[in-house]
Amino acid sequence: MNGPGKIQVFTGEGKGKTTAALGLALRAIGRGHKVFIVQFLKAPDTSGEQIAAQSLAPMITIKPMGRKGFIFRRGCEPQDVEMAEQALEEARSAMLNGAFDVIVLDEVNCAIHLGLIDVTDVLDFMNSKPDNVELVLTGRYARPEIINRADVVLEMKQIKHHFDQGVKARKGIEY
Question: How far is the C-alpha of 8 from the C-alpha of 91, rounded, in Å?
Answer without folding.
Answer: 16
